[in-house]
Specification:
- This protein has helices spanning 5-8, 16-41, 44-50, 55-72, 76-104, 109-137, 142-172, 177-180, 183-196, 205-208, 212-235, 240-258, 272-301, 307-334, 337-353, 364-390, 398-441, 443-450, 463-468, 470-494, 496-503, 512-516.
- By secondary structure, it is mainly α.
- The chain has 3 domains: 1-210, Growth Hormone, Chain: A (Up-down Bundle); 212-262; 268-519, Growth Hormone, Chain: A, CATH 1.20.1250.20.
- The two termini are 35 Å apart.
Length: 519
């Protein structure tokens, strides 16, 4: 029997085969959790109609999952110290699989909401536990770099595959299969975790001295933050209800920070590498999740593509990641993590700027090369920051550090989507008004914006003619706002440069070969 990790601070010694079987089981669980966010998004209208759920209620099906997930992520370190890696994985997988089954057979809004909350809570554990296992299961060297690459690759690939898988299942089967697809992988991952991961002693002593009030503050703070971000784009960021949610979030998290012994180890952020690594995690969450959000908006509302067609378009980024992953493992062995991060974020910014010139006539080809660039860059936006942030954290604290690293990425994603959604809501009407004005004062600009010939434009005095192109004007207004979003995301990606500069020459950023030699 291997002693509890918290007591030994030891790496879990396993033979190569069971080590990789256990790690693959962990990766399956993480992929299920991340995929389940995006796989449902494109099919929410179908579920809404099937269960006779109102649009306002339906949005909570997604929001509830995200809230539960974000609350659970930073608790992973605590849960690992109590239940051990093996049994926490098994418990989370069982809960996620059963909740998926419950979602598939839900008969109404309440049923679906309850099971989505359970899914989110279990999924929030499955995500950071993988990044902890990289350092608990693998010694420094090639295998650890390979495991880091695999985990980072799946963390980025799963969201890009979500729209494709969701669209295909909805088009060819039914919405129930959005959840039923989790059953078989869940069972296989449970079996792999039970058979391959080492047995450890469950330690409930920590629960007796736990600051339960800090857990309440954490839940209230993160939930209030996400609810505020949900309402802000449409209601306005300064609307009293939105400000109230943000105030509740800020007050709860500040109080949590001031607690003498909170359940969440915020003091780990005193580690410079972890703190700046979390900043990079926030930035990649911001640009990655917003990027994935913007493509379906354009392809659906401007070009009228189906969920399956949108999914095929987004697959380009995932395939680019797949091709790049083997090379990133080798490059990471020889180059400094700060340099690789700068190259990755810089290339990702270029890929974002490349999409900032869309027109209403743009289609899938306009996204091909930008997605290739972003797919290649994403490996270096994810892998080096993981090593930078977590590479030298003591093993008994790795679960807590991984939770902080991952929750910052998810919060970054939530804020990123809220910001671009706000830009879309506020700027689209401005562009529509500008186009209408150009129809009277500058036909050339109006034609360019609408993707039409000047001779095809109706007279400004022709009410019926203007009505006939009203949809095109609305699409052009949305396209103009989306172009601004791509520019904004590009500049956000470039914010990584001062972060990388300020972190300084930390030891965890050394090339893997030098780090392993004790340099």
């Amino acid at each position: 029997m291997i002693p509890n990790l918290a007591a030994t601070s030891a790496r879990l010694e396993l033979a190569p085969v069971p080590r990789w079987i256990g790690f693959v089981a962990l990766c399956i669980g993480m992929s299920m959790a991340i995929l389940d966010i995006q796989v449902v998004v494109t099919s929410l209208p179908v579920i809404e109609k099937a269960l006779d759920i109102g649009p306002d209620q339906m949005s909570w099906v997604q929001t509830s999952y995200l809230i539960a997930e974000v609350i659970a992520i930073p608790l992973t370190g605590l849960l690992m110290r109590v239940f051990t890696l093996r049994w926490l994985l098994v418990a989370a997988l069982v809960a996620f699989t059963l909740a998926s089954l419950g979602c598939a057979f839900s008969s109404g809004f309440i049923d679906l909401l309850v099971f989505r909350v359970a899914q989110g809570a279990a999924g929030g554990v499955l995500i950071p536990i993988v990044f902890s296992a990289i350092f608990l299961l693998f010694p420094p060297g090639f295998e650890q770099s390979l495991a880091t690459t695999l985990a980072g690759f799946l963390a980025v690939l799963a969201p890009t595959l979500g729209p494709l898988i969701g669209g295909w299942l909805t088009d060819h089967y039914s919405w129930h299969w959005l959840f039923l697809i989790n059953i078989m992988p869940g069972v296989l991952a449970i079996a792999g975790g039970v058979l391959a991961l080492p047995r450890q002693t469950i330690n409930t002593d920590e629960l007796r001295t736990l600051d339960w009030f800090s857990l309440l503050l954490l839940g209230v703070g993160l939930a209030a933050l996400l609810i505020g971000l949900k309402y802000a784009p449409k209601d306005g960021w300064l609307e009293p209800r939105v400000l109230a949610w943000f105030a509740l979030a800020a007050g709860s998290l500040w109080w949590l920070w001031k607690r003498p012994n909170p359940a969440i180890m915020f003091r780990l952020l005193e580690d410079r590498a972890l703190a700046f690594g979390c900043m990079l995690s926030f930035l990649i969450g911001f640009v990655l999740y917003a990027n994935i959000y913007l493509i379906p908006v354009f392809m659906s509302y401007v070009r009228g593509h189906t969920p399956l067609e949108i999914g095929l378009c987004t697959l380009v980024m995932g395939l680019s990641q797949l091709v790049t992953a083997p090379f990133s493992v080798q490059i990471d062995r020889y180059l400094n993590a700060r340099l690789l991060s700068a190259l990755g974020f810089g290339a990702f910014a270029i890929g974002l700027f490349m999409n900032a010139h869309l027109t209403v006539n743009s289609d899938t080809e306009a996204y091909f090369w930008p997605q290739v660039v972003r797919g290649v860059a994403s490996a270096f936006c994810v892998l080096p920051p993981i090593r930078l942030a977590l590479g030298l954290i003591p093993l008994d604290k790795i679960g807590d550090a991984s939770g902080l690293f991952n929750v910052t990425r998810n919060i970054g994603g939530a804020i990123g989507i809220a910001v671009v959604d706000t830009l879309i809501w506020q700027r689209s009407p401005v562009y529509v008004d500008q186009i209408k004005d150009w129809l009277r004062t500058d036909a050339d600009k109006a034609a360019a914006m609408l993707g039409m010939k000047v001779d095809d434009l109706p007279s400004p005095d022709d009410a019926m003619g203007l009505l006939g192109i009203s949809d095109v004007i609305a699409q052009a207004g949305l396209t103009g706002a989306l172009n601004e979003c791509w520019v904004l995301l590009g500049w956000v990606a470039l914010l990584s440069f001062p972060v990388i500069l300020l972190v300084g020459p930390v030891r965890s950023a050394l090339p893997v070969r030098k780090l392993n030699k004790g340099a």
